[in-house]
Design a protein that fits this description.
elongated, alpha/beta
Length: 222
Amino acid sequence: MLGKIRPAAHSLIDLIRSETPIHVHRLLTTGAGRTFLGFLLFYLLLIQLCRHAFYRDPTSAFFDPSRAYEHVYSRQRQQQADDFIKAANSSASQYPHGDPHPTMCLGIATVERSGEQYVRPAFGSLMEGLTEDERKHIFTVVLIGHTDPQQHPIYHETWLEHTADKVLTYDTSIATQFDHLVKWEKDKDYRRKAIFDYTYLLETCINTGAAWIAMIEDDTLA
């Protein structure tokens, strides 16, 4: 940063020298002149510090959109979440689970997406880094939002069995309700189905008795 300021200051001094050599001599030799130059260098340094500190703040005059949206933390957290899921997929060991009477219930409704299944890093980022005691106070519910849960690629994945406290599917014993779900899927009536999924998941979390409930989108990175 100082390397950027020094050339700018030298260029300014050279410019003044080339135009008014007598005034420059006074500027460099008098107390007032040296004070002015000191203030100028301090001002340039302050500007550079502000550019470095506030480039991500959209309300700042130093906001820099070319740098503000770099995924610095997100890339790191994505890798940590991916590593968590990969380890849970390949490990035969049991992961800590939430208490049946938890402090918090986390609900995630997920449907198959074209290409990458974002629910993997979403769930991994929520669980990665928790201590065993912290994990004990959180009960996780993952709703597979298909009338045929086999349609979702994660349904039989090992990590889901190892890390989620409850894998929720639709109750086929309630015929009328299930028929509605089948029709909404067929008609692509996403609004009604999304409302049902949210309500179904919320009721499941309420039944745990948790003091706190969080409904998480399946493409969230925590």
